Amino acid sequence: QKKKEALEEGNTGLDGMAAILGSGVGLAAILGDGTVFTDNKRLLELGHNLVKGLDGQWNLYDEQGGKHKLQNGEKSIELLYGGPFMAKRFLADPNNKDFIESYVTFPDGIESIENALKVLEDVEHPARSQLIDNILIGISRETYQKKLIAQDFVTNSGHDIGRAFAVLIKNYLDQKWVENIILVSGVGELFGKPQDGTVEDLFLKSIRE
I want to staple 87 with a disulfide (CB 3.0 to 4.6 A). Which of 34, 118, 132, 162 is the partner? Predict the structure, then answer.
């Protein structure tokens, strides 16, 4: 209860936030003593409450039940930028077919894009996690081999996530923790990441822009 009051009353002891971009999307504010604060459902359910409308604009909803109910073509940030959904969106785009066949390695037993899409739909499939990783790793690797399709996907994703985070920050300008954002989990830590430190991380650069 004390942590909840600290956030709601604008306590400046909150000095950072961990934005989870992985199989799902969420957020935890970090207290000055290092305690992870997750009591505020609006933040804990960020993946459902940070939502993009058909007009392309992002909104942050505060629902009593914790999760915003999507309507009128809305898409939550989790449905757009959770790892499984990013992989599926890239795989399902017919414009990416040649790239996928050339640069994405499917796990054994997955013979085609159509088969891969079915695997992504089956959360219990043993090869699903590896397939997701292979798709996102393939995109990330080829970004720095100057493959335009990969670069565009990384850049456009980063720009859109940056716009979403801007709305989040605008809603919490009175909180010190919005000054420091750390991306964690699979997508946040690995997607679009260069293999070495000789080139700039295009994904992070695009989010900041």
Answer: 132
For tokens 């801007």, the residue is 166
Cβ–Cβ < 8 Å for 171, 67: no
pTM of the model: 0.85
Half-sphere exposure of 124 (CA within 13 A, CB side): 0
Alpha helices in the chain (DSSP H): 2-8, 41-44, 46-49, 77-81, 83-92, 97-103, 113-121, 128-143, 148-171, 185-190, 202-208
Calpha distance 70→74 (Å, rounded): 6
Q: How do residues 32-42 score in pLDDT, each as one tens digit?
A: 766 776 556 67
Contact 209, 45 (CB under 8 A): no
